[in-house]
Amino acid sequence: MHRFERKGTVFRNKDALGESYRPETIEERDEEIEEYMEALQPVVDGWEPNNVFLYGNTGVGKTAVTDYLLGRLQEDVEAYDDVDLSVVSLNCKTLNSSYQVAVELVNELRPVGNEISSTGYPQQTVFNKLYQELEALGGTVLVVLDEVDSIGDRDELLYELPRARANGNLEDTAVGLIGISNDFTFREQLDPRVQDTLCERELQFPPYDAPELENILRSRAEVAVVDDAVGSGVLEFCAALAARDSGSARQALDLLRLAGEIAENEDCDRIEQDHVERARSRLEQERVQEGMRDLTTHGRLALLAVVSKAAKQETPCRTRELYEEYTALCDSSGVDTLSQRSVHSHLSDLRMLGILSAEENRSGSRGNYYSYELDVPFESAIEAMEDALRLDAETNAIREIASMNER
Ligand SMILES: Nc1ncnc2c1ncn2[C@@H]1O[C@H](COP(=O)(O)OP(=O)(O)OP(=O)(O)O)[C@@H](O)[C@H]1O
């Protein structure tokens, strides 16, 4: 049996390419930082804070810039005796109502062992408990709600909290809300009254372009990667791939990290473009698998129908035939079937997710029709289906057919 041993020839500090790392410097966001600082200026001047709403795609630095600036702000206000600033931060990802967010905020502010239960109170009682905790803090409190869109339309807290002072719920404490979201539609869906308060100051973070990503990568690689372990053109390649796809710094950093891991596993002491290329394909596959896991039951059954046809080497395959396969799978799993039109719409969603590809066939008088086939490796599709569907007998049978056909 092999034993574990240290490989480390490429990384100096791999954690610096990870999610929890807080960069010392923020690259390429000077304008946004300036605007953000302006919005936070009343805190330093001792006035009531503005509410700020930040939005932009995933990985464009909203959280990193917020952490960085609030850290600075906390340091800088120490010079002023009459400013007493506290910051409470919460990621709302798993919280989908004002009630849940308020409970979490109360518990953030209470000492360990003194938390309240997450169910069983009327909403106003939880809000009152929150006011009590905030009032006990006094001074200025900035409440940062990351991924605030998770709260959905149960957004009363976003309306109430900024008005707490005006409504007499707080006397000694001034609260400012900082909402962060990557859902562009969230702002539009907010109740207009909430929109007015939460979006008092709005900051939009655009996607990064390739040269910007290259600078971010370069400054991070200096901390994370051993000198001379970045091959020629590697940072440029990671930056170009991420810029073309999403403009996300997270994606660029993930590419570099995985490419470094691949290089180390192969006992290379330098990351080369070929490692990046393989990292790209692996990350893409992971993303597709995640996409598959999020499908609805009928989305999965529609996909399984294509997988089954692929095992028989009968793809590309027309919607009508896929529908027959889908109906048989629904029968075996005891699920009611949808109409052919709905299944077609699932197939077309799968195509948008990059899981299927479709070919348009023109058949003259009888109109056009589509033929579908898998656009991801057969093995990853069936593996994801096995995880997601409890259809072991069917997936085993499909596997057997596939192996007979040497897939
Ligand atoms: N301008 C930048 N300079 C240095 N590092 C950056 C910059 N922008 C983003 N990063 C890094 O990229 C990663 C993703 O950034 P961040 O978490 O701030 O994105 P986000 O916009 O908040 O994304 P999400 O909406 O998914 O939470 C982090 O590791 C962060 O440190």
UniProtKB/TrEMBL annotation:
UniProt domain AAA+ ATPase: residue ranges: 48-203
Domain Cdc6 C-terminal as annotated: residue spans: 303-385
Biological process annotations from GO: DNA replication
GO terms, molecular function: ATP binding; ATP hydrolysis activity
InterPro entries, A to Z: AAA+_ATPase, AAA_22, Cdc6_C, Cdc6_lid, ORC1/CDC6, Orc1/Cdc6_arc, P-loop_NTPase, WH-like_DNA-bd_sf
Annotated SMART domains: AAA, Cdc6_C
Keyword Hydrolase attributed: no
CDD domains cross-referenced by the UniProt entry: Cdc6_C
Annotated TM spans: none
Swiss-Prot/TrEMBL keywords: ATP-binding, DNA replication, Nucleotide-binding
Residues the entry annotates as binding ATP: 60-64, 208, 220
UniProt KW DNA damage keyword: no
Family: Belongs to the CDC6/cdc18 family.
Role: Involved in regulation of DNA replication.
NCBIfam families: orc1/cdc6 family replication initiation protein
The protein's name in its UniProt record: ORC1-type DNA replication protein
Organism (species): Halorubrum ruber
